[in-house]
Amino acid sequence: MRSRQIHVEGYLVTFLIELARRASQLPIFFASLALFTLMVMTFCDVVMRSLFNTPIEAATELTRILMALIVFAVLPVISCRNEHIAVDLLDPFVPSKWQALRDGLIALATGIMLVWPAVRVMTLAERARSYGDVTEYLSIPQFYIGWAIAIATMVTSVLLVIRGLILLAKPSLLER
Question: Is there a contact between 150 and 121 (Cβ–Cβ < 8 Å)?
Fold first, then answer.
C-alpha cells in the first residue's frame, strides 16, 4: 500500500510540474505579442516620421509600457527555469555534490527578497490609483502597469521559493 501511495504522489508531482511548464507558455506568448506590437509601432513611427513628418505622439509612452510588460511577463518563467544571466565565478570552488544545495539556498533567498519590491510596487501602484495618475498621451491609468509589475514580481518570488524547496528536497524533479 505504501509503495502505491508513493507512486501516485510521484505522478501527481510530475503532473503538477508538467502543468506548470505548459502554463509558462502563456506569459511568453503575451511578451512575444507585446514585442511584436512594439516592433510594428516603431516601424510605423519611423515611416511616419521620415515620410510625413508626423511621428506617433504616444510612441515613447507605449514603448515604456510595452517594455515593462515584456520584461515582467517573462520574469517568472526565466527565474523558474533558471535561465537568467549568472556569473559563475565561484563554481570551480563549490563541489558538485553541494551545487543543488547552493542553488536551492540562492533560489530561496532570492524568492524571499523579491517580496519586498513586489509589496513596494503594489503600494506605489495603489498610490497612483488613489491620485488618479494616468499616462500623458493615452490617459492609461498608471496603476495597471504597477499592478502587472507587482503581480509578476510576487509570482516570481513564489516560484523561486518553490524551486528552492524542490532543489533542497529532490533536485531530480527539475531535470528534463
Answer: yes
Q: What angle do CA 86, 119, 116 make, to 5 degrees?
A: 45
Q: 123-170: per-residue pLDDT in tens?
A: 999 999 999 999 999 999 999 999 999 999 999 999 999 999 998 988
DSSP state, 55? -
Taking the C-alpha atoms of residue 113 and residue 138, their distance in angstroms, rounded to an integer, is: 34
Range of the domain at 44: 2-174
**Which ranges in 53-141 belong to alpha helices (H)?**
59-81, 99-113, 115-131
Whole-number pLDDT of residue 138: 92
The dihedral built from the CA positions of residue 137, 139, 141 and 145, taken in this order, carries a sign that is negative
Q: How many domains does the chain have?
A: 1
Residues of the chain with pLDDT under 50: none
**Cα→Cα distances 77→7, 11, 55, Å:** 28, 23, 35
- Residue that the C-alpha cell 523561486 belongs to: 160
